[in-house]
Structures are given as structure tokens and as C-alpha cells.
Design brief:
Blueprint: H1 2-15, H2 20-32, H3 36-49, H4 54-66, H5 70-83, H6 88-100, H7 104-117, H8 122-134, H9 138-151, H10 156-168, H11 172-185, H12 190-202, H13 206-218, H14 224-233, H15 240-253, H16 259-275, H17 279-292, H18 299-312, H19 315-320
Helix pairs in contact: 1-2, 2-3, 3-4, 4-5, 4-6, 5-6, 6-7, 6-8, 7-8, 8-9, 8-10, 9-10, 10-11, 10-12, 11-12, 12-13, 12-14, 13-14, 14-15, 14-16, 15-16, 16-17
Length: 338
């Protein structure tokens, strides 16, 4: 009963204004109710009274992460890790915030240091795998997700992550296996349903994809993967108006700093409006998509991405990769650089 606890703690804090434990408990109650701004105030009060309280820094970092103020969260979580260097939860939060703050190399460094000290820590391997996936280092992502599941077989998020990587490299059967394993335990797991919907879409199984999409929508979720798939296949079902409306609403629900998801969805909507002949709307979405990642060429970062792609899609892999199941006698004319 967080509301009742909050009222009691507020009354106590008014009477005993310098009691850090009460302000900490108040901050927790406020955070549980989603009042992150007020929770931030309470946790900062604890730190002002007891500056060496690691749990206050950790909780404040978590609140700032929920508020998506990642640079501030990094600073606070670094302090928590400094006070309690062996705490793995604070370190994981720090890694996530470093990535969101645009400090990927620092996130990698923290992750490697965490695993050096905790070589059996499944969540640590999952965090490293996620970083590798974001950096398009697919081979390393697969290896680390496997290690995560080897040490912690019940990590559903790691299994879903592995499914996403397999999807990215064209291993659809392996991807489906991961999602289905999750759905056996949690039949309404939205990420896994969305993952299977994408597999159906890419395999040309549009009726099955549409059923999965409608299931997620009926569950009341606005999900970027579902929105993209819905817009891509809406022609088949004469449902483009519904697909566009769902995608636009999903876009509105995304935080401003979720840039990659926003970019992909803007491009998807741009293409759909283009096909619908609504060129002003299409151009507006294309502009928004490009604005998510302004052009700032980093040759070293680009080289790392290309190296990772070459490493993953090696000649040996391409020879053994699954073959396309959709066949057609239509000629294909490819225009591109030699």
C-alpha cells in the first residue's frame, strides 16, 4: 500500500526533517508510485545528510534512468559503484546509462571489468551481448547471449535478445526456437510475439504475421516492432488506415531520446505515406527520421561496424546460411556500386 506508506512517511519526515532512513523509504514509496521527480528530491535529501550512502546513490541513479536523464544518472551511479565496488546491480545500471548517454566504449569497458571479477554472472554476459548487438557485432552478441543462458538459463530477456540477433543474421529457425521457448513459459510475452510476427513477415507468411500483430494490439500494447511490421504488410489486408494510425500513436508514445526506434518508425511511415500519395506527410517523416541522427561521420566507428559485419557474414557463413524460401521467375535488376 504505497499511497498509505507515502502519507505516513511524509508526516514523519515533517517531524524529523534530518532522518535519512525515513527520506530513503519515502523515496522508495514515491518511485513505486511513478512519482520519480519527488523521489529524486527525497533521495537527494538522504545524500545531503549522509553523503556516503551507496543505496541512496543507487536509487537516485535508478530514478534518473527512469527520467531518461542519462548523463546525470552516470555520474550518480559511478559514485554508488565507488562506494560499493562489488555491487553488480549498480554496475549493470551504469553500463545501460553509459550506452544511452552515447558512451559505448566506456560501457564496453565497464562490462568487461564486471565479467573479469564475476565470470559466472549471467546478467553481465547479457549486458555485454546487448552492447555487441547495438554495435552490430552479431557474432560476439550470439556468443555472449549463449554464455548468459549457460550461466543463467532462466534469463528470458537474454533468450529474446538471442532471437533478435538470429533474426538479424537470417537464422530464422533458431530465432523462432528462442521465442517459442519464452512463450512456453510466458504465453503473453509481447517481445516474443513481436519477434515471431517479424519472422512470419520476412518469410512471406503474411496471414500468420497479421494474426500475431492483431494479438499484440488486442493486448493494448504500442510496440515499435509490431508497428513497423503492421505498416509493411497492411496492403495485403486493406488495413493501411489502421496500420498508420497505430504506428503514429506508437511514435507519439516513444520518449524523445529513443532515437533508433523513432528513426526506423519515421522511415516506415514515410514510405507508407509515399505509397499513399500523401507526399507532404511522407517528406515530414523522412525529415524527422534524418534528424534523429544528424550526419557526423566518425570513420573509426564506421570501420568498427563494417568490420563486425564482415566478421559475421563471412564466406563460410554465407555458404552455410539458410536459403531463401520465396522463389519467383521475375527478373531482378540490381543497381549499385561495383
Amino acid at each position: 500500500e504505497y499511497e498509505k506508506a507515502e502519507l505516513l512517511l511524509q508526516e514523519y519526515c515533517l517531524k524529523h526533517g534530518s532522518d535519512p532512513e525515513s527520506f530513503y523509504l519515502l523515496g522508495q514509496a514515491l518511485a513505486q508510485r511513478g512519482r520519480f521527480g519527488d523521489a529524486e528530491t527525497a533521495f537527494r535529501k538522504v545524500i545531503s545528510v549522509q553523503p556516503g550512502t551507496a543505496v541512496a546513490y543507487g536509487s537516485l541513479g535508478s530514478v534518473l534512468r527512469r527520467l531518461r536523464r542519462f548523463p546525470e544518472a552516470v555520474e550518480v551511479l559511478q559514485k554508488a559503484c565507488e562506494i560499493l565496488p562489488r555491487d553488480k546491480v549498480y554496475r549493470l545500471d551504469l553500463i545501460e546509462c553509459l550506452e544511452h548517454a552515447g558512451r559505448r566504449q566506456d560501457a564496453f569497458q565497464e562490462c568487461h571489468q564486471l565479467l573479469e571479477k564475476n565470470p559466472d554472472f549471467g546478467l553481465g554476459y547479457a549486458a555485454l551481448a546487448t552492447l555487441c548487438f547495438c554495435a552490430q557485432q552479431y557474432g560476439d552478441a550470439i556468443e555472449n547471449y549463449r554464455l548468459a543462458l549457460e550461466h543463467s538459463p532462466d534469463l528470458l530477456d537474454a533468450r529474446v535478445g538471442l532471437g533478435k540477433v538470429y533474426t538479424a543474421v537470417g537464422e530464422r529457425a533458431l530465432a523462432r526456437q528462442q521465442y517459442q521457448t519464452v512463450l512456453k513459459e510466458k504465453p503473453d510475452h509481447v517481445e516474443s510475439i513481436a519477434g515471431i510476427a517479424v519472422l512470419h513477415e520476412r518469410s512471406g507468411e503474411l496471414d500468420q504475421a497479421y494474426r500475431k500483430i492483431q494479438r499484440v494490439i488486442d493486448m493494448g500494447y504500442h510496440h515499435t516492432t509490431i508497428a513497423n511490421a503492421y505498416v509493411n504488410i497492411c496492403d495485403r489486408f486493406d488495413d493501411c488506415a489502421g496500420a498508420v494510425q497505430y504506428a503514429e500513436t506508437t511514435l507519439e508514445s516513444l520518449a524523445d531520446d529513443v532515437r533508433w526506434e523513432r528513426k526506423v518508425l519515421h522511415f516506415t511511415l514515410g514510405r507508407r505515406y509515399d505509397k499513399m500519395g500523401e507526399y507532404d506527410k511522407a517528406f515530414g517523416h523522412y525529415q524527422q527520421a534524418n534528424s534523429q541522427f544528424p550526419v557526423n561521420y566518425d570513420s573509426a566507428a564506421h570501420a568498427d561496424v563494417v568490420t563486425g559485419i564482415i566478421k559475421t557474414f563471412s564466406p563460410a557463413y554465407m555458404m552455410s546460411a539458410p536459403r531463401a524460401s520465396i522463389q519467383s521467375t521475375r527478373p531482378v535488376f540490381i543497381v549499385g556500386m561495383p
